[in-house]
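pls design
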């Protein structure tokens, strides 16, 4: 299979910040070999949350999801590297923490799907839209990591 250099979007959710897991979570991605191209802390507005989770509008958990994601600050990131979309999701683990491998972020730190610590884009099209939703093009940097074997 051909390896593609990709960018993906990752969102560290409010409960991870409340639990002081930010450094641990970012380290997981860095240690795996993904490069941080953009990062910001923000408090999502209801409008932004509804756009981000619009595809879940008809789901029974939608209102709780919007309440939760707007309940406190989040950290938005653009990560890049070889097959970054699948790589980030591998580091994050299954959406349902009960099914997530214990070595993944959700497997180690989450107990419910509703508060599953972190979001990562699921495909190229989602990554493109989600990056553009949270970052202006000039906020996303492209640079060399001279000592990284993987990049
Ligand atoms: P995320 O990766 O942010 O993408 C959509 C989110 O919806 C998901 O993680 C969960 O936080 C939430 N979600 C998905 N399925 C359920 C569910 N069955 N119950 C509650 N929340 C859910």
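designed seq:
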């Amino acid at each position: 299979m051909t390896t593609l250099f990709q960018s993906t979007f990752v969102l560290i959710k409010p409960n991870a910040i409340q639990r002081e897991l930010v450094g641990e979570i970012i380290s997981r991605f860095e240690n795996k070999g993904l490069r941080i191209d953009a990062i910001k802390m923000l408090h999502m507005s209801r409008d932004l949350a509804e756009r981000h989770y619009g595809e879940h509008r008809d789901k029974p958990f939608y209102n709780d999801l919007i309440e939760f994601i707007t309940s406190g600050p989040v950290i938005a990131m653009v990560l890049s590297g070889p097959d970054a979309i699948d790589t980030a999701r591998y580091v994050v683990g299954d959406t349902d923490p009960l099914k997530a491998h214990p070595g993944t972020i959700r497997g180690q730190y989450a107990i419910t799907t509703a508060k599953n610590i972190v979001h990562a884009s699921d495909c190229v099209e989602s990554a493109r839209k989600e990056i553009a939703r949270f970052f202006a093009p000039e906020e996303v940097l492209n640079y060399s990591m001279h000592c990284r074997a993987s990049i």
